User: What shape does this take?
Amino acid sequence: MTHQAGFHAPHGGADFLGLRRSRNGGTEIVYDDGVTRRMIWRVAEEGVSEARLTDALRVAVGSTRVLPALYDELKKRAIAIERVAG
Assistant: This one.
């Protein structure tokens, strides 16, 4: 998996979703609204393909309500997450 990948909202908002590797080698999802909110989740299971994750993030960031869309997209793909910060 790549070390980092990021997606910005195309509808003019400052919303950002990204993937990164944590210090211990796990995969994390980062959300930032560009103003006050920054949230981080750890992907609970190892071996989730980068394609599944990036597809979920790409669809979610294209929505006007990014966080609900992110949760829906991860659920559709059966990707479990654990909140780390935010």
